């Protein structure tokens, strides 16, 4: 099945989309939502939706938005959570609400006592 998400075409298996109640319903009614080119339009932000779709494809793999320089991207987690809630992806919503991402990163902080100069 080809989805048009924000002008970007994404292909996904029907079984993948069926993991989301809202996407499954959209595909069931595909004749209504199908565009002239045979794609199904999904009104979503591709940058956020892509993380939800990745989770639908691999439900045991959660998104990690973290870098050493900036830490966690809490704003992106909030947007992904709301998109997942909209599409009925409970496992992803629960993981974000439980802050599962904080358990996925371990940081070691090394502190060296300053040398005292006399």
From TrEMBL:
Domain of life: Eukaryota
Biological-process GO terms, alphabetical: protein homooligomerization
InterPro entries: SKP1/BTB/POZ_sf, T1-type_BTB
Domain annotation Potassium channel tetramerisation-type BTB: ranges: 1-92
Pfam families given in the database record: BTB_2
Protein name: Potassium channel tetramerisation-type BTB domain-containing protein
Organism: Amniculicola lignicola CBS 123094
């Amino acid at each position: 099945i080809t989805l048009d998400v924000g002008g970007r075409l994404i292909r996904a298996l029907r079984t993948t989309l069926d993991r989301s109640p809202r996407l499954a319903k959209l595909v069931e009614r595909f004749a209504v939502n199908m565009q002239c080119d045979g794609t199904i339009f999904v009104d979503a932000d591709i940058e956020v939706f892509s993380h939800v779709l990745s989770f639908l494809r691999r439900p045991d793999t959660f998104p990690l938005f973290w870098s050493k320089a900036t830490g966690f991207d809490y704003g992106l987690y909030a947007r992904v959570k709301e998109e997942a809630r909209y599409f009925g992806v409970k496992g992803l919503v629960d993981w974000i609400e439980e802050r599962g991402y904080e358990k996925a990163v371990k940081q070691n902080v090394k502190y060296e006592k300053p040398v005292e100069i006399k």
